[in-house]
Design brief:
mainly alpha
Length: 284
């Protein structure tokens, strides 16, 4: 009320969040058209930070159609900020290598996390990532648990991360699955047995005829990946163990390929035979 001190506390905040959730549920079905940065800009101009958290673009179904241009209306600084010219200890970025610069397929100076994945030379060449590939919306109710129990039929919420790494990061930053291929160690150790001056990419010794239906998803440039593979295995290994953040591998779909055998290896039992519908080429 005007002239009175605003109340605060868990009860009021939980009530506000419930009301906001109801508003999103009502607005989102009528605001599902993506690709309109001007509309996002107009809404952002009349919303404060709290209300902008509940903008329909942060929720399905609009997040599924959101374009990078729409996201960058409010989040442009994520690409404009650069790495620090020097560390707190005084080391200059131009005098040291980032871990990602140690692979031959990376070109140029150090870049921030989002720059490397969206606008860096390697990203533009081999990848087609978008903001909503990783960021599948942002429900504040799932960042902090303000609702201790079921309220008016609403289920409890689990504290979640901003991104689901199991369906994003792990796809390109999983462990090299040497045991699935019958290899005796990581590719850095065994590649010498497959490569020489004539055979530049040892991966293709087998994968010229095995699992040849690959990379046919909208977040990758399949043709560019195959072209790069003719020169070196660094591009293949870069996303299949060379930049591993995790101790597990992503269970890629096992698409049928010409000449595929009828027997399914034990490690592949239960794996899908098609890519996720939301990323499959030809699906929207």
């Amino acid at each position: 009320m005007v002239g009175k001190r605003r109340q605060s506390g868990p009860g009021l905040r939980a009530g506000a969040m419930l009301l906001a959730a109801f508003c999103v549920a009502m607005i989102a079905p009528h605001s599902s058209r993506g690709g309109d940065p001007q509309a996002v800009k107009t809404r952002a101009a009349r919303q404060d930070y709290y209300r902008s958290q509940w903008d329909p673009i942060h929720f399905p179904p609009q997040i599924d159609r959101a374009t990078d241009e729409e996201c960058l209306v409010c989040h442009r600084e994520i690409l404009e900020r650069d790495v620090l010219p020097a560390s707190p200890a005084g080391l200059k970025s131009e005098d040291v290598l980032g871990w990602y610069q140690t692979l031959d397929v990376y070109e140029g100076p150090q870049m921030t996390f989002h720059q490397r994945h969206l606008v860096g030379p390697l990203a533009r060449k081999l990848m087609n990532l978008s903001c909503n590939f990783c960021h599948r919306g942002n429900d504040p109710r799932e960042e902090g648990l303000f609702i201790p129990a079921d309220v008016n039929g609403m289920p409890r919420f689990t504290l979640r991360k901003m991104v689901n790494p199991s369906e994003t990061c792990l796809r390109c930053h999983g462990r090299f699955p040497s045991e699935n291929m019958g290899l005796e160690g990581d590719w850095r150790r065994v590649r010498r047995d497959f490569e020489d001056e004539e055979t530049r990419n040892g991966c293709l010794v087998c994968h010229e005829t095995i699992r040849t239906v690959r990379h046919r998803v909208r977040y990758l440039h399949a043709a560019a990946i195959e072209e790069a593979a003719k020169a070196t295995s660094d591009g293949c290994y870069g996303c299949h163990g060379g930049r591993a953040w995790y101790r597990i591998s992503y269970p890629y779909p096992r698409h049928p390929w010409p000449g595929m055998g009828e027997e399914t290896p034990e490690w592949a039992v239960g794996r899908p035979t098609e890519s996720d519908p939301q990323w499959r080429i030809g699906s929207e």
